[in-house]
Amino acid sequence: MFNTASSPTSSSSRASTGSPATVGDVISVMEAAYPPYLAESWDAVGLVCGDPTENVKHVAFALDCTDAVAERAIAENADMLIVHHPLLMRGVTTVAADTPKGRIVHRLIRHGVALFSAHTNADSARPGVNDCLAELLGVTPGEPLRPIEEALDKWGVTVPASDANSLKDAVFHAGAGTVGDYTEAAFEFDVTGQFRPTAAADPHIGSAGELERVEEIRVEFVAQRRVREKVRGALLKAHPYEEPAYDVVETHSGTADVGIGRVGELDTPMTLREFAERVSERLPHTVWGVRAAGDPESMIRRVAVSSGAGDSFLDKVAGMDVDCFVTSDLRHHPVDEHVRAGGCAVIDTAHWASEFPWCGQAADVVRRGMEERGHTVTTTVLDIQTDPWTIHSQGKN
Predict the structure, then answer these.
(1) Under CATH, what is the fold of the domain 147-258?
(2) Which of 22, 79, 163, 328 has its CA 20 to 30 A from that of 48?
(3) What tens digit of pLDDT does each residue of 280-316 get?
(4) Per CATH, which fold does 12-124+356-381 belong to?
(5) Separation of alpha carbons 46 and 163, rounded Å
């Protein structure tokens, strides 16, 4: 039985009255909770179809955008459908209405339903898909199984003293200068610059052909690498010179608290047999069910989870202090070799079952976010099972 208290299979709620929300408002809330920069490089997250300026009164949530899900969203009079798995990701060259994916896109557009996906960015975010899975199974969602390194740039720029404050304001507004719990962080010191403008130059200071020496300030700050071009644009716009002098050095601040998977303690130590039964009871029911590899009587105290397909982490968990790894879409040979090499126990769930509980979390994120902005919105988690497997036969004894 699926634990509806932790993540409802079908729920609907209305926020307090206020100004109409737009697709763009909902996107803003989703991207604040599940930042796009956390997505894997191969992923395709964000708005698939729809107009960001269109009003939204009703947002529906599902794991996949199948024909049945699209039809239900339309029937529920949803203005926006948010899913986990991107509809258009692999080898898409057409959305013609006579193709499976194109049929869905055309149907949604004709009925004014915007489509948005949050995939691996929602997997890595905190709280995200993996936190939801861990908590549902009674596992404290601790450190990520694969943390994302926090990539930083160290910037340095020289600027006339009279323009230093306005330049700092500009780059800080673009996202620079944040270090831990501190913002607008920078170093600065006095320097002397020199230059000789050519006849073609239009200098802010000095005259063509004349050597100019200027008392300036060098400002140094850090910024996340993902906002490099935004910071560069702000710097160039705010700097008074035609050709400002600046440098960027790549660095990093170690690993972040976000990333794929979670590792934590099980609330009550139990055998693998008991834990597999708990996983089966707490996740949504599927024909695929739940299967486990390892000694059924081994004790499980510390668990790693990775929602969706996670066999690429088998080598990693083999070298970790964990008693069990819970994931989906596992294959015969990798699991067999992992167990025979002395690796931890493994529990394999249906892909859909390990990720669907997130839909309830995402609905709560949008509902709260819209309330904070004074908007009126209804959220509904669609109770359509999109797991593709329909028959499971163990055969005769």
Answers:
(1) Alpha-Beta Plaits (3.30.70)
(2) 328
(3) 999 999 999 999 999 999 999 999 999 999 999 999 9
(4) 3.40.1390
(5) 38
